[in-house]
Structures are given as C-alpha cells and as structure tokens.
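Action item from last week, closing it out:
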Amino acid sequence: RNHRQRGRGPRIVAIGGGHGLATLLRGLKQYSHNITAVVSVADDGGSSGRLRRELGIPPPGDIRNCLAALSDDEALLTQLFQYRFPTQSGGLEGHSFGNLFISTLAEITGSFEEAVAESGRVLAISGRVLPSSLHNVCLVADVMMPATAKEVRVEGESHIPESPGKVKRVWLEPSNPPAFPEVIQAILAADMIVIGPGSLYTSVLPNLLVPDIMDAVRASRAFKAYVCNVATQPGETDGYSCRDHLRALETHVGSGFFEIIIGNDHCEGRLPDGVDWVR
C-alpha cells in the first residue's frame, strides 16, 4: 500500500549535487517515487574528473551518489556501486565501481544519458537522475585574496574550495550551455522544486547558472524551497549565515526564487517579503 501511495506522490524536482543532494533524496523517496534529481556536471576532481578528462564524458560521481540514494534496496548491489578501489589498485586507484560502470555503459550505448538511465534500472531506483547539461562546462570563480585584497580568477570546481580567499561570484564557461531537455520538462511539470542542500558555489549554483534551468525554475508554478546548509563549508561559505547563503544565491540568479527557506535554529535575519523561514 505504501509503495502504491508513493507511486502517486507529488512530482518533486531536487536540484543540487554532492552528498547534500543524495541525503535529501533518501528522505524524499519515503514520500514519493515521482522524483527527478538534477545534478551538476561541473565536477572536475577525483575519479569523476579523471574520467571526464580521459573519456570526454560528464562527471559521473554525483550522479552515482544520487542513483544509490534513490535505490529501493541499498544493500549489496548499491554497496558495489559505491565501492571505491583502494590505493594499492594501480590504475584503478581512487575510482569507484559505479563511476566505471556508468562510463563503460556510456561507451557501449554511445550515450551518457542512456548509461545513467540504465544504471537506474539496474539499481531499481525510485525516480530518475538527470545531468543538468551534457555540455562540457568549467566552473570559474572570482576570489578575493585576503593578503592583497585583490580578486583573482580560479578555474575548476575542485580548485575553488582550496583557494584561501573569499568567493565573490562564480560562473560557467561557456556561459550559455544548453540544458538537458528532460530537466526543463521535469521542472515545468513539477509540483515542488527543492534546491539544496549542498556546496553553495560548487554544487547548487552550477545548476542554476545554466540559463535554461534558471528560466524554467522561475517560470514553473511549483512550490519552491531552498534547503540551507546546516554548517558552513571551508573554502566556500566560512562564517556564512542562512541570510548570507540566500544573498549569494540572489546575487547570481536574482530574487523571488523561493517561497520557503529551510534552515536550522541558527537561521536569523530579515528575509525578502513573501519568503518564510522553516526551522
């Protein structure tokens, strides 16, 4: 009965990346199976970055985490998908089995998006996982350096948190990558859109910086919520309050995106008219 109820659940689009989105999906699947996870493709570090550079595919790591999170049975098969080869594994060192599985399927099918869809069928996921774009994008940041009080340009998602300065803004290069069409369809058909939690500048914003996605979220009649991180992230949001997170989002994508912001007991500060805290 519960399975049937979830199958008739609301159409939810969750936008983000990293471990924050995967954690959210584990909770959402208890209420609905009509979930679409939209995942950033800006990752250029670790196993994902290596596969991206060597095979010319979008980074599979965050997509893999979301597939595992939406699996109906996070037992042996999902553990296998999440398995990471140890340091003594030669050329496989640092790779996860799931990343290699998705990459291999992309070679066999000739399509990264089909490889993700097939992986979802293998894991019997509740919902679907979509890349925000299939375009090869680079995340770039202007960072204010504390020693010189000058802004420097930092290229690459994995390098931005390592910079000692304060992130002022981020953007994609190229600046107008096409969105994956199914993402736009899901956003416009959604009953609810949830943005975050996740790394503000390197997981959440890279999705919204795809112009078609930003326009679709704004045009959608869905109920829109932002889940603010419960902790700050070194190298990105040191010292940020919930209001600072929202201010950074509005700087990049404009105001009027959300009806509700979900935060912890430390959230404070005046919000724009029409937006409420939920703690």
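Closing note: The first strand starts at residue 12 and ends at 16.
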